[in-house]
């Protein structure tokens, strides 16, 4: 389980997050929704230690990861798929996956499971990452994160710029991970995609979180979407 409690952070003198709190249980998808600039990506970066928490805490299981340097956070089972994928462009597909495997000392069995989930990557193991299509790059970014065998997975705009067939493959992969008991925190602008797979939704507004809402409630109460994201 991921527990974020009264988390505040920002950039320099600018505070972006103000006492953000929510939980993500194993086997559920929680989506962070909010307008541009609400603090969604900042929240994910703070959880990963890429931004230091000014106050509050982030715990994964029994470990308070907000006290750790960024390079230690993934070793406690938190995978991160950032917006823009952030692959090692000049390395091959196989080499990018190998970097993921090294984080927690995983081996061929783990890689085989990832390639079973994304067989197209298996066809391109010796191909450089920067020569892949956008959808294939997203598969590789996802596969690299899965190579640590995460108990918690953070995804930032995973369907951005993808064609519908690729979006569906990513959606299937995310729901399969949820069904295996992974706790998933998803940032996504496509509301239709969110409502089709999320269990709960947390709205961020001006860097502050609102209590989690059951995703089914948003389907019957669209006024909430108008209020928090203006759609």
Q: How are the elements arranged and paired?
A:
Elements (H helix, E strand, L loop, with lengths): L1 E10 L2 E11 L4 E5 L6 H8 L7 E6 L2 E2 L13 E4 L11 H11 L4 H10 L1 H4 L11 H13 L5 E5 L7 H16 L3 E5 L3 H7 L2 E6 L2 E2 L3 E2 H6 L2 H7 L2
Helix pairs in contact: 2-5
Report on this model:
The protein is of the alpha/beta class and 231 residues long. The chain folds into 2 domains: 2-77 and 150-229, Rossmann fold; 88-149, no CATH class. Helices cover 35% and strands 25% of the residues. It has helices at residues 40-47, 93-103, 108-117, 119-122, 134-146, 164-179, 191-197, 215-220, 223-229, and strands at residues 2-11, 14-24, 29-33, 55-60, 63-64, 78-81, 152-156, 183-187, 200-205, 208-209, 213-214. Strands 3, 6, 7, 8, 9, 10 and 11 form a 7-stranded mixed sheet that branches. A hairpin with a 2-residue loop joins β4 (55-60) and β5. α2 runs parallel beside α5 (134-146). The longest helix is centred in the C-terminal third of the chain and has 16 residues, at 164-179. The chain starts with a strand and ends with a helix. The model has no long low-confidence stretch (mean pLDDT 92).
N→C terminal distance: 31 Å
Helix/strand structural class: alpha/beta
Segments where pLDDT lies below 50 for 5+ residues? Answer: none
What is the number of beta strands? 11
Please identify, by name, the CATH architecture of the largest domain. Answer: 3-Layer(aba) Sandwich
- CA radius of gyration is 17 Å
CATH class of the largest domain: Alpha Beta
The residue-averaged pLDDT reads 92
Question: How many DSSP H or I helices?
Answer: 9
Element string (H = helix, E = strand): EEEHEEEHHHHEHEHEEEHH
CATH topology of the largest domain: Rossmann fold
Q: Roughly what fraction of the amino acids lie in strands?
A: 25-35%
**DSSP helix fraction:** 25-40%
User: How many structurally independent domains?
Assistant: 2
The CATH homology group name of the largest domain:
P-loop containing nucleotide triphosphate hydrolases
Let me know the largest β-sheet: 7 strands, mixed
What is the approximate shape? Answer: globular
